[in-house]
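Memo to structure team: turn this sequence into structure tokens by end of day. - J.P.
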Amino acid sequence: MPQITLDQGTVHYRDTGEGEPVLFLHGYLMDSKLWEPIVDRLAPDFRCITPDLPLGAHRTPMNPGADLSLAGIAQLVADLIVALDLPRVTLVGNDLGTAIAQIVAAHHPERIGRLVLTNGECFENCPSPWFRTLGPSSRVPGLLTLVFQALRLRAVRRMPFGFGLLTKGALPHDLIDGWLGAFFADPDVRRDCVKVTRGIVPTALLEPARQLASFDRPTLLAFAREDRLFPYAHGERLAAIVPGARLETIHDSRTWVMRDQPDLTALLFGDFIRSTPAGAAAADVTPA
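Reply from structure team:
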């Protein structure tokens, strides 16, 4: 994997295909491989960049003083866009990546040509109630590591407080094994994960949501109806806030739309990118 060094530390990323750049943000305790089914479908037409964000499954720890609050990680993403020279990039988020993408859009709109949000943390649902014990756990030394030890058991992963509510299909245990392996391999990666976890709080996205009322880039909200963690109603709320936002429904899917419905998700993303000029004000875009 190529890597790039930013002020916050070294970020590894995958860079596949050619054409208009699309930057994909993954969720908590995951890495960029989550997006592979979509990258495989879009890379013939677009340049797909998938970074391993410092969300607990990254291989290289960040600098000890790096700001790993959600706003800090959004700054890292904005810096990555500049460092990779991705003009008018299409920014795509899922799970905690959706929260980060919202903050990038609110604080650094000049970095974005288009915005695509799928199911993830929105408004006060940050984190989902199923995961709210992680915050207190992160404040007790060693406890978060103990909690994640249980996820080594595949039966535990399938529980609602594991990965079980993220997909309607079979869990990708090979990916999860890799994510947990990265977490347990390096104490400084675990340190980073603790810092991230402490910053996932219900107030983190409220001000960015208000700022999105003035976001003028084309926006696609591709939300799954059957998500039990991140409800479809939040896509509707965002559609009422973001000027000109297009809301599309993904049926028969939960949070991981790229895994449950890869063909439909890739089709929606591709059609949206092709039909909307990057950087155009949303009011000037006619929905397809």
